[in-house]
Amino acid sequence: MSLDNLKSFDPFAETDGGDDKKDYIHIRIQQRNGRKTLTTIQGLPKEIDPKRVLKFAKKEFATNGSIVVDPDLGDVIQLQGDQRQKISDLMVASMGIKKSNIKIHGF
Amino acid sequence: MSDEEQKKSVAFGETTDLENGEKVETNEGSTAEGHSVAGTNISADEMSSRIENGEAEAEAPATFDPSAMKKKKKPKKEKESENGEEAPKENGDGEGFDPKSLKKKKTKKVKTEDGEAAEGDGEIDFSKLKPKKTTKKKKAPAGDDDEFQKRLEELGLEDKKDEPAVPQTQEEIEAELAQGTGVWAQDNATPFKYSQLLKRFYINLYEDHPELSGDGRLKNYKIPPPQVAREGNKKSIFANLPEIAKKMKRNPEHIIQFIFAELGTNGSVDGAGRLVIKGRFQQKQLESVLRRYIVEYLTCGTCKSPNTTLMKENRLFFVNCNICGSRKSVSAIKTGFQAALGKRKKQQA
């Protein structure tokens, strides 16, 4: 016998998202000298090849960029300029990443 | 209506709306770009990836495609980095990847996504959340100015026979109430309207027990806008941080930490308690950071009220709501990846 009330609801689960195991993709921005900025994308899922993303982004956004291998965080994509919105749109639109998994930081 | 609500209720007023507008615009703009570029430039790539896809589905693990230059490279790299798990990984790669170059998906998803974006933006605002909470409140005069205004006008039409001077704005009503003039005067014999009494009730309630009156006025949770000045060429000063921290009942240190992590810089606090941030930042930008702080570390997850306290237990941060008593864990502030800036020589030294 099973009670419907006592089924699979976890009262201690996170209230908004539901998934605790969210691996966020962080998109950050850093100021360089003057009006120049740098966009970093951290935490891409493993099944996505950062190299290809970078290549695509470089062409599409007409900007330069590179991949930095961080000992803790893995591959981090760096792009010149403020590409936060564009890269997040790109990821949502064509890489099958949910918007809720992307965190855009910075101002 | 909803636009106006937003304007009113968000702490910093106009700028948010601007931001929203900008966001949406940029969204559209960039997606439009995406179409055109994807259409023209990547057709070759697309072709190859489509071919790849077809063949990959047929025979998953080892395929030799002369056309697939990139694909070959990719698995190599993965092997280098991860060792093993080839077949599933490759498959995943193919699936995760080639949609990028497919046009169809883009167009479809983008459209829906735009809608979501607009909604998402709205959700951040306190206003949109609030009206959901209590349906009663809509009847309350304290709720929406517009609705109230309308009702007032209706009332006004009725009242005109009795007394010509019906207060139009909320402020006037409040003033009358406070001073005991107009309808509320001792010698005034006109019967009270239900709505007037209701209004009076909410005003009194708010004065005596602001926490009970719910969103009536708290909806406009206001924080003084950050005062930002420039110090020299490369530093910005955030002058009224202590004031804001006090208003939010948060440790300034915590806010500072958050600001630095978000902006990817560092800085210091000067003698007067002002925050000196490295880099050029405008008021608008700090506002958006603060707003994010509020959403993440201030508002209660259940009732959205900003009346909360931040507690630290066993290295974990919890936000306790003082109104509904709910408690949610919030992630600690992480700076994340910091790109190396500045001159190489300096860093080596």
TrEMBL record, chain A:
GO molecular function: translation initiation factor activity
Keywords recorded for this protein, A-Z: Initiation factor, Protein biosynthesis
PROSITE patterns assigned to the protein according to its UniProt record, in alphabetical order: SUI1 (PS50296)
CDD domains in UniProt: eIF1_SUI1
Keyword Protein biosynthesis: yes
Residue ranges constituting the SUI1 domain according to the UniProt record: 25-95
Transmembrane segments: none
Keyword Protein biosynthesis assigned: yes
Superkingdom per UniProt: Eukaryota
Family: Belongs to the SUI1 family.
Name listed for the protein in its UniProt record: Eukaryotic translation initiation factor eIF-1
Source organism of the structure: Orbilia blumenaviensis
UniProtKB/TrEMBL annotation, chain B:
Record InterPro entries: IF2/IF5, Transl_init_fac_IF2/IF5_dom, Transl_init_fac_IF2/IF5_N, Transl_init_fac_IF2/IF5_Zn-bd
Domain of life where this protein originates: Eukaryota
Residues covered by region (Disordered): 1-148
Residue intervals passing through the bilayer: none
UniProt-listed GO biological process terms: formation of translation preinitiation complex
A molecular function GO annotation: translation initiation factor activity
A cellular-component GO term for this protein: eukaryotic translation initiation factor 2 complex
Keywords attached to this entry: Initiation factor, Protein biosynthesis
Basic and acidic residues bias spans: 77-101
Location of the Translation initiation factor IF2/IF5 domain: 218-327
Bias (Basic residues): 129-140
Statement: the UniProt record of this protein carries the keyword Nucleotidyltransferase: no
Compositionally skewed regions (Acidic residues) per UniProt: 115-124
Family: Belongs to the eIF-2-beta/eIF-5 family.
Name of the featured protein: Translation initiation factor IF2/IF5 domain-containing protein
Organism: Orbilia blumenaviensis
